[in-house]
Amino acid sequence: ITSSDSGSYVDDILAAQGLPNPPLLQKIFWAFTEGAVATALLKAGGGNALGALQSVSICAGLPYTLAICFLCTSLWRALKIDQGDDDIMHGGKWATDSLDIFDFFNPGPANEAATPKFAPMGRLVSLAKGTVAPFLQMFEASKAIHGENSIRAKVDLGLGALWFVCWIVFLIVSGTGAGGNWAYIGWSFYMFLVMHMTSIRSEMRARFNIYGNVVEDFFGALVMYPNIASQLEYQAAEQVPEGNDVYKNVSPSKAAAQ
Questions:
Q1: CA pair distance 153, 156, nearest whole angstrom
Q2: DSSP per position, 82-128
Q3: Which of 34, 90, 141, 248 lies in the 20 to 30 Å Cα band around 76?
Q4: pLDDT tens profile 212-241
Q5: What does the pLDDT read at residue 147?
Q6: What is the mean pLDDT of residues 110-133?
Q7: What is d(CA 53, CA 170) in angstroms, rounded to the nearest whole number?
Q8: CB atoms within 10 A of CB 43
Q9: 208: left (phi over 0), alpha (psi -120 to 50) or beta
Q10: What are residue 92's DSSP bridge partners?
């Protein structure tokens, strides 16, 4: 009953365009509507309907769990910027944002017009390349860190290609019904790729004095490797700045989204 009452209240606020004290009759409407839908589903589904509804609720809540992780990080950074903490106020920032695809590659306040730093079509091509060949962008990042003709960059290219190709090949083999634990082996190679990308991103972060930590690098590479690979490619083309007071004149809400 408590969950239904809370759900009805949230629906009522959304339907009332954010009013903190929405009309009572509207809340009653949503409560009866939700109850009627739940009753119909239980009646139509029989004895297994309740378990199915619970499974759907868990699956629907999983994406929000990931979103909350990003929101908590953004809130934490906004508070640090508001307080003027030196570690973030004197830090650099990435050339591109890892999730700016949701802002059409032009993040910023909705009421301010701005020109995208990079062409949207180029960003889309970079994301596509990061999806099918992230090791090439890891190679570009490694060259920027260790030098154009460094052995380390070539090793990063070879290992990155090995992890990615083995991941795809073993997943394909597991899908053919060949038996064995090929999928587990494939995902093990994916974790090698994630850890390798985490290492390169951490080195890039240190080179440009970008605020953050290895946990963020690992989480980003784990759940959105194409975005991180694309970000590394664009960052590799940047010049190391002499001064990094990038947040001195930036509002907390905008800086937290970087």
A1: 5
A2: HHT-HHHHT-B--SS-TTGGGGTT--S-TTS----SS-HHHHHHHHH
A3: 141
A4: 899 999 999 999 999 999 999 999 999 877
A5: 92
A6: 87
A7: 34
A8: 9
A9: alpha
A10: 210
Rounded to an integer, what is the distance from CA 152 to the centroid of its chain? 28
> What is the C-alpha to C-alpha distance for residues 100 and 114, in angstroms, rounded to an integer?
14
Contacts for 109 with CB less than 8 Å, ≥ 6 apart: 251, 253, 254
Above 60 in pLDDT, residue 81? yes
Confidence band for 67, pLDDT divided at 50, 70 and 90: confident
Other CB atoms within 10 Å distance of the CB of residue 240? 10
Spatial contact of 204 and 96, defined as CB atoms under 8 Å apart: no
- Rounded to whole angstroms, the Cα distance separating 246 from 151 reads 33
Q: According to the model, what pLDDT value does residue 217 have?
A: 94
Question: Residue 246's pLDDT band (boundaries 50, 70, 90)?
Answer: low
Evaluate if residue 190 carries a pLDDT over 90: yes
Q: Are 97 and 107 in contact (CB under 8 A)?
A: yes
DSSP string, 193-256: HHHHHHHHHHHHHHHTTBS--HHHHHHHHHH-HHHHHHHHHHHHTSPPPS---TTTTS-HHHHT
First CA to last CA distance, the chain: 41
- Rounded CA gap, 174 and 181, in Å? 7
Helix (H) or strand (E) holding 24: helix 24-45
